[in-house]
């Protein structure tokens, strides 16, 4: 089963209570949702926490780099995908 498409979306979840530290104020927690679609139409969804300001960066790395590395590869070869 080969990977057809990998896409990522950055999501910011606002904090109920804004938190201030000595170096910054945090208004939200950022996550990245990743969708992996196979040539057979199966869809896998995963997410990762990207800190308080890394969502867009992680999204761009997935879309611009990891997607190119994964498309056409065997979706079951998780260790191989992680190793490469």
Walkthrough of the structure:
- With 84 residues, the protein is α+β, with helices and mostly antiparallel strands.
- It contains two helices and three strands; from the N terminus they run βββαα.
- It has helices at residues 55-70, 78-83; strands spanning 3-20, 25-38, 43-49.
- A three-stranded antiparallel sheet has the order 1-2-3.
- The mean pLDDT is 94.
What's the short story on this structure?
The protein has two helices and three strands; from the N terminus they run E-E-E-H-H. By secondary structure, it is of the alpha+beta class. The longest helix has 16 residues, at 55-70.
Task: List its traits.
2 helices, alpha+beta, 46% strand
The low-confidence runs, each spanning 5 or more residues with pLDDT under 50, are none
* Number of H/I helices: 2
Instruction: Work out the radius of gyration.
Output: 16 Å
Spatial strand arrangement across the major sheet: 1-2-3
Mean pLDDT across the residues is 94
The tally of strands reads 3
Described by strand count, sense and barrel closure, the largest sheet is: 3 strands, antiparallel
Portion of residues within helices: 25-40%
Shape: elongated
Q: What is the string of SSEs from the N terminus onward?
A: EEEHH
Strand content: over 45%
Separation of the first and last Cα atoms: 18 Å
Structural class: alpha+beta
């Amino acid at each position: 089963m080969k990977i057809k498409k990998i896409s990522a979306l950055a999501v910011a979840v606002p904090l109920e209570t804004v938190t201030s530290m000595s170096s910054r104020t945090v208004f939200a927690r950022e996550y990245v949702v990743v969708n992996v679609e196979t040539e057979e139409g199966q869809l896998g969804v995963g997410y990762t926490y990207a800190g308080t300001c890394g969502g867009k960066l992680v999204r761009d790395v997935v879309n611009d780099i990891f997607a190119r590395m994964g498309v056409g590869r065997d979706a079951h070869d998780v260790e191989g995908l992680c190793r490469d």
